[in-house]
Amino acid sequence: MQVFKFGGASIKDAKSVKNLVNVLNKTGYKDTLIVVSAMGKTTNALEIVVKNYFDQSKQLQSSIQDVFKFHNAILLDLFDNEKHEVFKKVSTLFNDLKAFLDRNKSPDYNFVYDQVIGFGELVSSTIVSECLNDLNIKNRYLDVREFIKTDNYYRTANVNWEETQKRINANFNRNQLNITQGFLGSDSNNFTTTLGREGSDYTAAIFAYCLNAESVTIWKDVPGVLNADPRYFENAQLLNRISYREAIELAFYGASVIHPKTLQPLQRKEIPLYVKSFLNPEGKGTMVCKEAGLDPQIPCFIVKKNQVLISLSSLDFSYIVEENISEIFKLLHLYKMKVGVIQNSAITFSVCVEDLYQNLNELLQHLKATFKVTCIEDVSLYTIRHYTEATKAQMEKDKEILLKQLTQETMQLVTK
Ligand code: ADP
Ligand code: ASP
Ligand code: MG
Predict the structure, then answer these.
(1) Fewer Cβ atoms within 10 A, N terminus or C terminus of the chain?
(2) Which of 6, 121, 257 for a ligand 1 pocket mutation test, highest count of atoms within 8 Å of Cβ?
(3) CB-proximal residues (5 Å) to ion ligand 3
(4) Is the CB of 9 under 6 A from ligand 1?
(5) Other C-beta atoms within 10 Å of 153: how many?
């Protein structure tokens, strides 16, 4: 059993979907589970729908229509016959989305978000499944919500592993090609939940774990895991092999090529993870496995833009102690801040965060009740794993450094 994950970039238009078929034909697809994300930037487009809904914006219907048109254009390109069942299936999904918004009474943003956002993956998996069937690549379409059960911490739901394992054991047929949605699950009331942005990699790992799969392959628009994000660094080099531990570190510090939650389930069962290019499916890509720290052994660079540096000191200049720190972390959790680096001295506590859910103002208001707060927005967080003197100097050059932290293996800089 092998698990493939195709992300948004790999199915962003009709040509890419045809390329997915090409990948399957080259690699083989016997006893395979395919996990797909939403097409292209659909998730962002659906986030706008949710925002319009809560803002009671006049743009609500047109924002839904935009998402529909995007998919319909892909359908028209993929299927000659407009009477094909897939057109109806996709329209029905969009009608379900509208019906949900018409009927909804819940004021809970996170709940509504998950009910709406899930349509991206439901639509993409329907299209991919029908397209493959049409090409005689017979497959079974699965609704992932019948398999992956979670709590109701909407937008970053936690997997109920026991229930998920039970359902996979009972209802998953390994001996065929299966297609399902990444990123989604369902709670005990069967409402849709999501596993956190970019969570489809994690879905692939959850299935692989529960199925004792032989491998997971995530298909990307890059040759594999590189030692730096090619969007920001020139001459990024391919890493042939890296250990789970190293990959966990890279993902933790923000190497967005692998979702951080993906690695632990795979490591536990020593299931290898391949990161490969959907443009060159026969390329070696990167293998993440138990052995090999890092091959080649070179420094790795990670940058996270659009971070926020918050510094706190007590209003009466007393020390920042355990009690304050636990209060600060409770608030960071409450407002779903992603912490990149922390540093504390006797009277100041600094934390660099990513405001994934636009909660910064509320967090700052809350903190100001107890602390003197300074906040610098739009900073960058650079991390170098396995830094050398040369790379350290190169990184620091020409930058306004707001915070620096060095451990034996890792250097982090917050810069403006
Ligand atoms: P998906 O289509 O699966 O959602 P992503 O866009 O999330 O794919 O991930 C692929 C992107 O990750 C690449 O285009 C690249 O810009 C970025 N990336 C960041 N860090 C790295 C890295 N270390 N190696 C390779 N790609 C990286
Ligand atoms: N579609 C989701 C997102 O864009 C999940 C994923 O792509 O992994 O966040
Ligand atoms: Mg992605």
Answers:
(1) C
(2) 257
(3) 7, 198
(4) yes
(5) 14
pLDDT in tens, 150-195: 999 999 999 999 999 999 999 999 999 999 999 999 999 999 999 9
Amino acid letter for position 33:
L
Smallest-distance ligand from the CA of 221: 1
Helical (H) or strand (E) element with 47: helix 42-54
Write the DSSP symbol of residue 95.
Answer: H
Residue nearest (by alpha carbon) to ligand 1 atom 21: 229
Q: Dump pLDDT digits (tens) for 306-345.
A: 999 999 998 887 787 788 889 999 999 999 899 999 998 8
Ligand 2 atom nearest to CA at 8: 7
Interval between CA 125 and ligand 2 midpoint (Å): 13
Cα(206) to centroid of ligand 3, in Å? 17
Q: What's the one-letter identity of residue 197? A: R
If you measure from the C-alpha of residue 161 to the centroid of ligand 2, how many angstroms do you get, rounded to a whole number? 21
Residue type, 282: E
Distance of CA 353 to the CA centre of its chain: 17
Q: Give the burial class of 312: count Cβ atoms within 10 A of its Cβ; 0-12 exposed, 13-18 middle, 19 or more buried.
A: buried
* Alpha-carbon gap, residue 225 to 149, rounded angstroms: 30
Atom of ligand 1 lying closest to residue 219 CA: 3
**Confidence label for 137 from pLDDT (cuts 50, 70 and 90):** very high
**C-alpha distances in Å from residue 395, one per residue of 46, 55, 218, 404:** 37, 42, 30, 11
Q: Which two tokens stand for residue 12?
A: 């962003």
Residue 98 backbone dihedrals phi, psi, to 5 degrees: -65, -40
For residue 329, give both structure tokens.
């972390």
For the record, the structure tokens of 315 come out as: 């209003």
Pocket test for ligand 1, best of 43, 219, 222 (most atoms within 8 A of CB): 222
Q: What percent of the chain has pLDDT over 90?
A: 91
Minimal CA–CA distance to 108: which of 50, 40, 23, 162? Answer: 50
pLDDT tens-place string over residues 19-49 = 999 999 999 999 999 999 999 999 999 999 9
Name residue, tokens 């998950």.
114
Contact 214, 32 (CB under 8 A): no
